[in-house]
Amino acid sequence: MSEQENPVFAIEKIYIKDLSVEVPNAPQIFLDRDTPNVGIQLQTKAQGIGDGIFEVTLTATVTSKIEEKTVFLVEVGQAGIFRVQNVPDENMDPLLSIACPNILYPYAREVISDTVTRAGFAPVMLQPVNFEALYMSRLQQQQEAEKDAPGEPTVQ
After folding, report:
1. Total domain count for the chain?
2. Kind and range of the H or E element at 49?
3. 0.90 exceeded by the pTM?
4. In this structure, what CATH number is given to the domain that contains residue 57?
5. What is the DSSP track for 73-110?
6. Does 81 map to a domain?
7. How confident is the model over 2-46, as pLDDT tens digits?
8. In the structure, what pLDDT confidence band is assigned to residue 153 with cuts at 50, 70 and 90?
9. Contact 97/64 with Cβ under 8 angstroms?
10. Of 18, 117, 102, 141, which Cα lies nearest the Cα of 64?
11. How far does CA 68 lie from the centroid of its chain?
């Protein structure tokens, strides 16, 4: 096997693509002593930006609420540019949907914790995420949707 045929997976750059923080009920919210509920939503997006070069963005949205009142909302788009070459097509989607988010998530966790602290709140410690399980769940949902979709009408 020649050097050109060896698979290549390299991190070219990791950066914050988007960051926003909202504290819509400040300053009154700082006087509220009730324990807030914290929710997180994750989304990944991958796109080719050149020959064998991909940008993967992991968007994490953390919302803290006391009843219906928003305490804070932080959203970070943690992105990376990855060089992927000589990888079989069937391995590309798992690589971009599992391996890349696994690399980006610790950076997103740090940004969220730091941003929440700078907004005047106790840091949010996000738990580890199993991106492989999320990927498999998404595949299963797609397969079920395809199975349940109406097919071509049959002629008898």
Report:
1. 1
2. strand 37-50
3. no
4. 3.10.420.10
5. EEEEEEEEEEEEES--HHHHHHIIIIIHHHHHHHHHHH
6. yes
7. 555 899 999 999 999 999 999 999 999 999 999 999 999 999 999
8. low
9. no
10. 117
11. 25
